[in-house]
Amino acid sequence: MLESLIKSKDELVTVSEDASIEDALRIFETTSFRAIPILDTTGTLFRGVIYKMHIYQAQSQQRDLTLPVTSIMRNMTKFIQIDATFFETFFSLQDLPFISVIDENHNFIGILTHSAMMNMLASSWQTEQGRYTLTLLTDGERGSLERAAKYVSRYSTISSAVSLNPDQNALTQRIIFTLPRQVDEDILSKIIKLLSRKGFRLESIEDLNKQSYLS
User: Which residues lie closer than 8 Å to 156 by C-beta, 6 or more apart?
Assistant: First the structure.
């Protein structure tokens, strides 16, 4: 699933492990990159990542910029295998601008960017094809998601469903449904009334016709 999101090595700017900090700085000064992958001298194996901010720190500390980029290299162990699962990828990537992708021989394949992952998640929530999103507070009982989905489905198909528990409290667990464009205000009203009768409290409604979240 994630392979389609990977930006391949051929599309990227990389630096060799024997390049100097000064060499990397010249690249950063002519691009908008925050970080660049470092490969071995053959251009095959992943070594780490160099960040623009660490070069600026080296400059402010008056360090020798002719030193190799490996002297301020980071993220040497921050990579995923090409067959990584969704959650492996998501939690590895969450604090990084990108994560490097390697094969079983440690050969560098490319990168998966934070923005690509976020765009995929946004797309999966069907905000571009949906009309309304409903955020419900549940009673925390087992099967709440299934019951709420059953009630919504009496009047409409469901484009996407997400269960969230930001407070780690079963009594404040949220369910977010995205409803398709065919849903009008009359159908929406019927869904809301039924959910209310069945014990689900509506926290918010959003009309996606009035807001786009995907560029």
Answer: 179, 180, 182, 183, 187, 191
Strand 108-113 and strand 98-102: the pairing is antiparallel
Domains of the chain by start residue, with CATH: 2-120 (3.10.580.10), 126-208 (3.30.70.260)
Q: What dihedral angle (degrees, nearest 10) is formed by the CA atoms of 58, 62, 67, 70?
A: -20
More confident residue, 125 or 136: 136
pLDDT attached to residue 210 = 76
Q: What is the pTM of this model?
A: 0.74
Asked if pLDDT for residue 13 goes beyond 60, the answer is yes
Q: Among 6, 99, 116, 115, which residue's Cα sits nearest to residue 46?
A: 99
Residue 164's pLDDT is 82
Cα pseudo-dihedral 170, 89, 56, 13, rounded to 10: -150
